[in-house]
Design a protein that fits this description.
Helix content is 30%, strand content 31%.
Length: 169
């Protein structure tokens, strides 16, 4: 990937009021997107991934994990509910939880599965289908909405607004 592609990608990652980012990403730009994502979200820990079935939530999460240096085999936690990955940050082992709530029935079952423990563990948490437990997250959670543009491009909206402001926007 050449310098021109990187500059084009960076221009498309315009931030609005430093609270939202909208970007269209091609599948071959996911590693560039992942680096920009981590720079943009700073120290945020909980990320709520919204999007239709098959939109690429897991694929994007895998790119974000790879950008953090995860070496573990990654995949969808649809059946395991929670996948745990480790990475090294400044000589310390850190954890990422990749959580898929799709198969769980309600908030009680989600809590019994240990999801709440993950969310409040201070580890990075990526949560697919977060609308299954809307009362589980605090205002620090970051919304990541993904839509299909075409076969090789996705539109991604990242919203850093506090929960109370998200409801008004």
């Amino acid at each position: 990937m050449g310098q021109e592609c990187c500059l084009s990608f960076q221009r498309r990652c315009k931030q609005a009021l430093n609270l939202r980012m909208f970007v269209t990403v091609s599948l071959n730009e996911l590693s560039l997107f992942a680096g920009s994502f981590w720079n943009y979200v700073n120290d945020k820990k909980v990320f709520l991934f919204f999007g239709d079935m098959g939109v690429g939530k897991t694929t994007i999460i895998e790119a974000l994990c790879a950008a953090k240096g995860v070496k573990d085999r990654m995949g969808s936690p649809t059946y395991s509910i929670i996948n745990e990955y480790s990475f090294d940050e400044n000589g310390a082992e850190k954890i990422i939880y990749h959580i898929d709530l799709y198969r769980l029935k309600d908030e009680e079952e989600i809590i019994q599965a240990g999801v709440e423990d993950c969310i409040y563990s201070d580890a990075i948490c990526f949560i697919e289908w977060p609308q299954k437990a809307p009362n589980l997250y605090d205002e620090k959670a970051v919304d990541v909405s993904i839509e299909v543009v075409d076969a090789t491009h996705r539109s991604i909206k990242i919203n850093l607004l506090p929960l109370s402001m998200k409801e008004q926007s």
